[in-house]
Specification:
Its cofactor is Mg(2+). InterPro entries: Rege-1_UBA-like, RNase_Zc3h12_NYN, ZC3H12/N4BP1_RNase_Reg, Znf_CCCH. Keywords: Endonuclease, Hydrolase, Magnesium, Metal-binding, Nuclease, Zinc, Zinc-finger. It is built from 12 helices and 11 strands. By secondary structure, the chain is α/β, with parallel strands linked by helices. The chain has 3 domains: 42 residues; 162 residues, 3-Layer(aba) Sandwich (Rossmann fold), CATH 3.40.50.11980; 31 residues, no CATH class. Helix 5 packs across helix 6. The radius of gyration is 32 Å and the shape is flat.
Length: 310
Amino acid sequence: VHQSKLDFFCKLGYGKQDICKVLENLGQEALEDDVLKELIRMGSKPQALESQAEPSSLKLVARGSCSTTPASKWLGEDEHDSSSYLRPIVIDGSNVAMSHGNKEVFSCWGIQLAVDWFRERGHTYIKVFVPLWRKEPPRQDSPIADQHILEELEKQSILVYTPSRKVKGKRVVCYDDRYIVKVAYEKDGVIVSNDHYRDLQNENPEWKWFIEQRLLMYSFVSNRFMPPDDPLGRHGPTLNNFLSKKPVLPEPKWQPCPYGKKCTYGNKCKFYHPERPQQAQLSVADELRAKTKVPLTLEKEEKRNCSLHR
């Protein structure tokens, strides 16, 4: 009973110490309404209300400023707690390594470049999946470069080997793509690969949507890992928003009116007019009526006053 009441009021946002004090004073068999009244009488507040009462730590930034502040400061988040706003990263190690090796060599250096790129952005959860048989000595039909990098990444708990074994001299390999998509889906993260995983899309409709929306493609330019700035196309989110749990909406950009001051659409014009403050303007006809309305009303009042005097 004590644990159930403790869990109930913890879900409401009250602190455990306050709840325990009230239960000790009223007894374990006290009704929930009585416990709640006692908490309110003690002045205890849920954490949500306390956070609202605290002054905001966000700073105002001048509109249009070209600040080079790192991504960790966009939303006023703690600089060291990057996992709270950056998505987990799941890297298709085979795809990245073969892409860096021009589809001829399994280049482990390409995996290191991708991992370093996400590390510099502040991502704390990074997993690389590689088949287990890549630990074997390289052969002519499957050359491997910088194989020691795999051992270093494995020690750092970044690289994960997918199972594989030999049965009667034949290698039996588990489907590593399934590991990649499944982990990324469960972690609500991002898949780094140039593979579209069409077979897995047809297998599971939920995976289909996830792969379409969370697949981050890339290129290597002179040993530089480069994902696109618009991962989902021109009209999709930016790369920063794509990799963030809490995307930042851009400020609306107004396109200047091609007609300028000669525009006759007034407040119906969808373009920006710098000469019109707050963009709430009347049409030219309405402006003329507004200007002529004042003297007309004055004339009517004067005529009315004259008729009264007569």
